Q: What sequence folds into this?
């Protein structure tokens, strides 16, 4: 019978499948240790070897982190626990254990039945049937794999050569340097920039020449317009002077014709009388009615 505690845990794990992941605890930062007298030892920074399968803890992100705060960083950066998967693993392990025990009991029962049958056959003087014995021993675990960080070289006791770093002889082999990232291709950049600069210069030059041509055409049009206006003004002035001259001649002709008509109508004669006035003599044309 399932206990109420286990039942409640199973229900809680089943209900929380779609819920948010548990909150990640944040590291409780501890103030750094007080400065001590004497030389400051260089901090020992363990470098992960190449092809390290685990993500190294970001202890290096917190400079001056004391030793007692590393556990807080480890707890903060540990991946969240999947309680549902843990429960499934426990249930699978228990089921596999039950199956293993059942197989062991069945094998033991078969061996007892086989031994009893062989004993009865031997007592009756009959040769028992030779059945090949299949070893049913549990599989031996594989030998442990060599450490992934390589062999640790012991460099002797702590001496003057490694006094500043007592853990130096426990450190693994230094990781080979990573290949340098490919540097920028300055030649290609310079070629592209030169080509772009030439295109911009040609574009600017073409625009400047086009604007100069447009400005020259506009100046020429303005000059032509001014010449046309000046010619129109001179032509109008000449026409106006000619018209005024024609009007004046026409008026003089009309006046002369009117005087002639009046003279002919009234029969008046023109008498010229010489008159002396002052010191000199002059001819005066006097009309008498």
A:
């Amino acid at each position: 019978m399932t206990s109420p505690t286990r039942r409640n845990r199973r229900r809680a794990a089943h209900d929380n499948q779609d819920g948010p992941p548990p909150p990640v605890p944040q590291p409780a930062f501890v103030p750094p240790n007080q400065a001590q007298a004497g030389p400051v030892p260089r901090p020992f920074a363990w470098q992960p070897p190449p092809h390290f399968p685990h993500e190294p803890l970001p202890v290096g992100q917190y400079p001056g982190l004391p030793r007692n705060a590393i556990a807080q960083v480890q707890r903060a950066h540990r991946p969240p626990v999947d309680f549902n998967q843990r429960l499934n693993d426990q249930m699978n392990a228990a089921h596999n254990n039950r199956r293993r025990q059942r197989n062991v009991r069945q094998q033991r029962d078969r061996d007892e039945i086989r031994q009893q049958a062989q004993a009865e056959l031997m007592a009756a003087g009959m040769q028992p049937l030779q059945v090949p014995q299949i070893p049913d021993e549990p599989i031996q675990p594989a030998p442990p794999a060599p450490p992934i960080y390589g062999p640790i070289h012991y460099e002797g006791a702590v001496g003057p050569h490694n006094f500043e770093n007592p853990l130096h002889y426990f450190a693994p082999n230094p990781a080979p340097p990573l290949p340098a990232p490919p540097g920028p291709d300055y030649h290609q950049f310079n070629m592209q920039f030169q080509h772009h600069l030439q295109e911009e210069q040609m574009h600017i030059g073409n625009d400047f020449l086009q604007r100069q041509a447009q400005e020259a055409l506009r100046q020429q049009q303005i000059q032509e317009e001014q010449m046309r206006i000046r010619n129109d003004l001179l032509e109008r002035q000449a026409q106006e002077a000619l018209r005024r001259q024609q009007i004046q001649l026409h008026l003089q002709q009309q006046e002369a014709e009117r005087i002639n008509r009046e003279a002919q109508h009234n029969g008046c004669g023109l008498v010229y009388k010489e008159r002396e006035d002052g010191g000199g003599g002059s001819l005066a044309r006097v009309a008498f009615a």
